[in-house]
Amino acid sequence: MNTLLEVRELCKTYRKQSGWFSQRSVIALQNISFTLAEGKTLAIVGETGSGKSTLAKLLVGIEKPDSGEILLAGQPVQISHYRQYNHVIRFIFQDAAKSLNPHQKIGQMLDDVLRFSTVLDPQQRKQKIRQTLKQLGLLDEHSEYYPHMFSGGQLQRVALARALILDPKLLILDEALTALDPSLRAQIVNLLLELQQKSGLAYLLITNHLRLVRHIADDLLVLHQGTALDYGNTAHVFAHAEHDYSRKLINSAIT
Ligand SMILES: Nc1ncnc2c1ncn2[C@@H]1O[C@H](COP(=O)(O)OP(=O)(O)OP(=O)(O)O)[C@@H](O)[C@H]1O
């Protein structure tokens, strides 16, 4: 399996104002390294403040690391060239459905994504929108719908359509499934697994939902206060975590 994403020794420190004249440093990530192969799922788990969101922000180019490297298919990713790779890595965050513009029809929203990032002509864009909606179990007519006309489950599919219409190789799901009710989550998870099988899409799943991790992640990285503790095959980490912290996190979630 080819390596899609390689993260090497990533570090990020924030400076926080702690008084009128003083600043405090917060180490958000310290020497984080991992790899993710095409068609695989890596879960990043950790409590609030462990650095999960910072990692996601560095990966999608919202923020810059202090040091370390992000390689995509062997090529270093540079924040200044973000537009070159924003169709390769796509991002869905918590409450993605709420981030849809309520005044814009879904077809128009998807068309905007294509106009911004591709050179497809109007006819080709229309075709691509139709194909993407179908892939996500939505209908042609849904192009003419506004967000409020969809059910919760359909909205989640719309959010996925927006992320997947550019045929990315990697989808980062930052707590994107956490807020869903269990039956809806199961539907979306099955859809994600199906898409992965068909297209070789890789997922980086940032979550605290350890049951979900056990169900869908090939590999698991446990973050604690910006440091990587256990990292490896999910079943192996669940059974033989080296660090107390990881064991407690795993046990509290599955017992
Ligand atoms: N913009 C910022 N300025 C200062 N400190 C920050 C900033 N963003 C994050 N931090 C700090 O960096 C650390 C890691 O934060 P981060 O949001 O990455 O954690 P997290 O694991 O994603 O938490 P959560 O699950 O609550 O989102 C925390 O101590 C946080 O307070």
From TrEMBL:
InterPro entries, per the entry: AAA+_ATPase (IPR003593), ABC_transp_ATP-bind (IPR050319), ABC_transporter-like_ATP-bd (IPR003439), ABC_transporter-like_CS (IPR017871), P-loop_NTPase (IPR027417)
Keyword vocabulary terms for this entry: ATP-binding, Cell inner membrane, Cell membrane, Membrane, Nucleotide-binding, Transport
Full protein name: Cationic peptide transport system ATP-binding protein
GO biological process: transmembrane transport
Naturally occurring in which organism (per UniProt): Rheinheimera pacifica
Domain spans labelled ABC transporter: 5-250
Any one Pfam family match given in the protein's UniProt record, by short name: ABC_tran
Topology relative to the membrane: Peripheral membrane protein
One Gene Ontology cellular component: plasma membrane
CDD domains registered for this protein in UniProt: ABC_NikE_OppD_transporters (cd03257)
MF-aspect GO terms: ATP binding; ATP hydrolysis activity
Record-stated family: Belongs to the ABC transporter superfamily.
Subcellular location(s) per record: Cell inner membrane
Superkingdom in the source lineage: Bacteria
